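Notes on consecutive records. When two proteins share a document, each keeps its own sequence and its own token line. Never mix them. Below: protein one.
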Amino acid sequence: MITKEKKVEKVCSFYASDYHLEMIMIPYINRKIEEKANVVIITERSLTKTAKDVVSKINISQTKKEQILNINWGNNKVEIINKNKKGKELSVFVIGSVDYIENMNEKIENLKDNRIIKIINCYKLEDVQEKMTDIVSNHTKVLNTTEEKEIA
């Protein structure tokens, strides 16, 4: 019996405020929606209010706005990943303290799952200034407001 290995890719992102984070996330999420890929947010604290504020001010169709806001911006449980089985690729934003991100990454990596999972770990700049080099070295790419960039 041939089994597929789960593929996990880790991307990191750094943000100054919740609004800045959402300005990084929303273009990426919009692209993934267009590609029919799944996006999940796992966050230590809810981003629902600020996400609504940001989405209301961007110039995209109302349908796209609704699709972006239909993602649970306040979810704090890994179990939601099991409810998103459609599609081959799953992008999971993990947002919170360094300890929270590490804990959620471990839970995601331990899931029995054959999908391609891209974990996008989002760190608040003021919390990780001293650790940025270590954090970047544990990821393959960095996500910023324009796109993902390979780490050289």
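Protein two starts on the next line and is unrelated to protein one.
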Amino acid sequence: MDPSNNHAVLAAMLAPAFFLTATASLLLSANNRLARIIDRARTLLRELVDIEDGVERALYEKRIALQRLRSLLILRAGQLLYVAISCFVGTSLAVAVDTFTGHRLGSLPIWLASFGVLAMFAASFLLARESTLAVTAINEEMDHRPSRRRSGAAA
């Protein structure tokens, strides 16, 4: 085995490693966001039980629906990020197999890397959409505080 070829293989495996790190960071962020969404949804569900006013109840049901949508977006983004991680690992393995075993995998490493980047790209759009919904949710809650809390604060 040619030592200069080893350097080329390691260099070829390095790019997927950088993408793996970036994807893992996004996945960690997505999982943290999902945990916050679940906590907020549970709080809203607990509060919903005590609400008798129809208008306020509808407002809480709308907030819960928004949390459900946010959680679905994060779930899909997380799934895409796991696909991206698998593709990047597959890219590194394909480069190693192609080089060290003599099997010619052709353009498989390129396809795996491309698919991984596309999955990461799509996940980023979903995460951006969820961030927009998070801001929408907090703005809506600040604009429409429940009347029972206002009356409780005045008493």
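For the record: The longest helix spans residues 3-49.
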